[in-house]
Specification:
disordered N terminus, 285 residues, efflux transmembrane transporter activity, single chain, conserved putative lor/sdh protein from methanococcus maripaludis s2 fold, elongated, Elongation Factor Tu (Ef-tu), domain 3, 17 strands, 2 domains, 6-stranded antiparallel barrel, alpha+beta
C-alpha cells in the first residue's frame, strides 16, 4: 500500500519529466534487496535448529555402537556394556598404609638352644634381611609381619612374626640396614637356609581416597582410571597414585570421594577408546 502511495505521489511530481523512470528503477531494486535479505534470514533460522551433538547420545539405544567424542569420553549402549562385563564402584576414604614386601633367610631354627643374653627364644625361628636405609626408618621393633615359606608345592606355609631388631650401622657404608625377624614356628618346619617372603606396613596408616587396584590403568600415556558418568557415558581421568597396598590404590589426586570408577573392564575401555580415536567413527564392538 505504501508503495502505491509513493508511486502516485511521485507520478504527480515528476509528470512530464524524464526523471521518473530512473527513480522507479531505483525503487524496485531497493524493494528486491529488502525481500532477499528477509528470505536469507528465514533460511538461516531453519538451518540452525540448535541441536547439541551430545543430546541424542544421552539416550542411547541399547544396540547403539560405541562412540567416542574427544574431550567428552566414551558412549556405550547397554548391550555393549553387558558384553564387556563392566562393573563400577565408588571411590572411598580409607585408613591405609603402604606395605613393605621383602625376602628373609632363616639362620636359626625354632628348636635350637639359645643363650639368655641374645634375647632369642626357643619355639621361634629367626631370619635376616637387608633393606633400604630410608625404608628402615619407617619400621619399628616389635612390628608385626606376615610370612610365607618360599618352597615348591601347591601351597606355601604361612607364619606370623615380628621385627626383632633393626641394625642401622651399615647404612653409612652400604645404604642398607639389617632387619632380624622373629618367626613363630612351634611345628619346627623352617630349616636354616630357608627363604621366606614377608610383608609389613611401612609407616603409619593415614586417610586416603582409595579405589580398587583393578581400576588403575598404568599406561605409556600416564596413569588413568575410567569414571562412570551415567547413561552409558565413561570418561578417562588422569590420577596420581601414592601407593598400592593389599589390592587397593591410594590416590594423591585425580578423584573425589564418591565418584564411580570402572573396576572391571577398564582395560577394554582403554583399548576401545584407542581404536575409536584412531578410526574417527563408531565401532562395532
Amino acid at each position: 500500500m505504501f508503495f502505491f502511495f509513493l508511486l502516485s505521489s511521485f507520478s504527480l511530481k515528476f509528470q512530464d519529466s524524464l526523471a521518473l523512470f530512473p527513480f522507479l528503477i531505483f525503487l524496485f531494486a531497493s524493494l528486491a534487496s529488502l525481500n532477499s535479505l528477509s528470505l536469507f534470514g528465514q533460511s538461516m533460522e531453519k538451518a540452525n535448529p540448535g541441536v547439541v551433538f551430545e543430546e541424542p547420545l544421552a539416550g542411547l539405544d541399547p544396540s547403539s555402537p560405541p562412540r567416542f567424542i574427544p574431550g567428552k569420553g566414551l558412549y556405550l549402549g547397554a548391550i555393549t556394556e553387558k558384553e564387556m562385563g563392566i562393573q563400577t564402584a565408588a571411590a572411598v576414604e580409607k585408613e591405609i598404609a603402604p606395605l613393605y614386601l621383602g625376602e628373609s633367610q632363616v639362620y636359626r631354627s625354632s628348636w635350637e638352644k639359645t643363650s639368655s643374653f641374645s634375647g632369642q627364644q626357643q619355639g621361634f625361628a629367626y631370619s635376616t634381611s637387608f633393606i633400604d636405609g630410608k625404608d628402615s626408618e619407617k619400621l619399628n621393633i616389635g612390628q608385626r609381619v606376615q610370612l610365607k615359606a618360599k618352597r615348591s608345592g601347591p601351597e606355601a606355609q604361612s607364619y606370623e612374626g615380628k621385627i626383632f631388631s633393626i641394625d642401622k650401622e651399615l647404612i653409612a657404608i652400604i645404604g642398607k640396614a639389617e632387619v632380624i625377624l622373629q618367626i613363630f614356628d612351634p611345628g619346627r618346619t623352617l630349616q636354616v637356609g630357608d627363604w621366606v617372603n614377608f610383608e609389613t606396613t611401612l609407616g603409619l596408616a593415614a586417610t586416603w581416597i582409595t579405589i580398587p587396584e583393578t581400576a588403575i590403568l598404568d599406561t605409556a600415556s600416564g596413569c588413568f582410571c575410567y569414571v562412570f558418568l551415567g547413561k552409558g557415558h565413561y570418561q578417562r581421568k588422569p590420577i596420581e597414585v601414592a601407593f598400592v597396598s593389599q589390592g587397593v590404590g591410594a590416590l594423591k589426586k585425580g578423584l573425589e570421594k564418591g565418584e564411580e570408577v570402572v573396576i572391571q573392564g577398564a582395560k577394554q575401555l582403554w583399548l576401545l577408546e584407542l581404536s575409536l580415536s584412531q578410526s574417527g567413527g563408531p565401532s562395532t564392538y
